[in-house]
Amino acid sequence: MTDLPEADFYDVESLLTTGEAAKLAQLREFLAAEVAPHAVDWWNDAEFPAHILPHIAALGLAAPDRRHFSHLFTGLVVAEMTRADTSLATFFLVHHDLFVQALIDFGSEDQKERLLADAVALRTTGAFALTEPGHGSDVAGGMVTTARRVVDDGGTHWVLNGAKRWIGNGTFCNHMLLWAKDADTGQVRGFILDASLPGVTRTRIEHKIALRTVQNADILLDDVRVDERDRFSGIGSFGDTNKLLRASRISVAWQAVGQQLAAFDVARAYAVERHQFGRPLASFQLVQGQLVKMLGNATASLAMMVRLAALQDRDGDGDATMAQVALAKAHTTAAMRETVAMGRSILGGNGIVTDYRMAKIFADAEAVYTYEGSHEVNTLIAGRAITGISAIV
Question: How far is CA 61 from CA 97, 244, 372, in A?
Fold first, then answer.
């Protein structure tokens, strides 16, 4: 199969600089050696491979490092990580694109000095605690976790009460960017929460059928005292989250590309190698039709993301609107759902056991389809932009 064309059928990677192409090749080599051979076992066991974090840090792909690269390169990094293991890519995004980037964008000089270097080097890990048990898509207006400001002889601090759910990295992270509503003003505020503080209870969410390697947690907060120095002074309302959420939504759309590339890789190899009726599966017209449809979906999704990256590169992060990002997330994940379903079909019964990778790809796609804004919510954000009418509420 070495002479078959790559899944990057239109050679998008040729748009990278020489340095970016070399860096992407280095990442691929690492993923092929250290991640891909073990990803299914990690997924089956629902265990996070903490031992590889120093090796990931050594790749130099942390949020500050990516300033030196194009948005196309950073997107392809996410796609390649996802292609090897969606769970690892999700850890990377939660830590770097949400927690570390929040320190960069909203952190005080003191906060950066205390926390940033260790977080970038993955000596410590972070999480993003926004979603609540009763509030996901409507958490902006429905947030019930509260922060009450207290001034006493010990100075100013905040007392946090409430609950968060689906917090990726939540079982083992050192810190969380935690969102809470000011009990006095109703404003949404952000805090750096030391996960070891008294009153913080973390419980792993069990029985997942997707992203099993990701350690999602329920977080309970019972009179947790947080110093004023750990409040994000740069966050004054939920609107301040838009930059973070827009960037993370772009990354999840890139994950949808990576899922499709992975599904195509596995399905094509299987179709070429598997024989039925005395012939390779790939010799049957219906199978070739499915493979071409899978490749077409992946290529169209990749092309949309290439253009979105160009908009980001044209003027920093300012030229890709939330509506454009929402359309990309909605469209690529819908295409992904179709692609992985066809891939699972090509593998027949072997497509529902993780031994052949496709079952894991198929299951993980459901999480990608849902998080960072459900398909429906992202569709309605784009719909509002093109009609001028909000149908969300």
Answer: 11, 18, 22
8 Å CB contact between 204 and 215 = yes
What are the tens digits of pLDDT across the range 22-78? 999 999 999 999 999 999 999 999 999 999 999 999 999 988 778 889 999 999 999
Residues 6+ apart with CB under 8 A from 121: 57, 62
Quickly list DSSP for 332-379. HHHHHHHHHHHHHHHTGGGGGSGGGSHHHHHHHHHHHHHSSS-HHHHH
Q: How far is CA 348 from CA 63, 241, 270, 271, 359, in A?
A: 40, 43, 10, 11, 11
Beta strands in 186-297 (DSSP E): 188-194, 200-204, 217-227, 275-276, 279-280
Residues 364 and 259: beta-carbon distance below 8 Å: yes
* Amino acid at the residue 171: T
Tokens of 224: 């947790």
Contacts of 186 (CB under 8 A, 6+ apart): none
Q: What span, in angstroms and rounded, lies between the C-alpha atoms of 217 and 205? A: 5
Residue 244's nearest CA partner among 105, 374, 370 is 105
Split at pLDDT 50, 70, 90, the class of 313 is confident
pTM exceeds 0.90, yes or no: yes
The single-letter DSSP state of residue 132 is B
- Residue bearing the bigger pLDDT, 155 or 293: 293
| Residue pLDDT, tens place only, 239-265 | 777 778 888 999 999 999 999 999 999
Of 143 and 197, the one with more pLDDT: 197
- In sign, the C-alpha dihedral spanning 176, 180, 183, 188 is positive
Coil, helix or strand for 100?
helix
∠ CA 81-167-121, rounded to 5°:
50
CB 133 within 8 A of CB 165: yes
Rounded CA-CA distance 19/208 in Å is 39
Q: How far is CA 19 from CA 70, 276, 328, in A?
A: 11, 45, 27
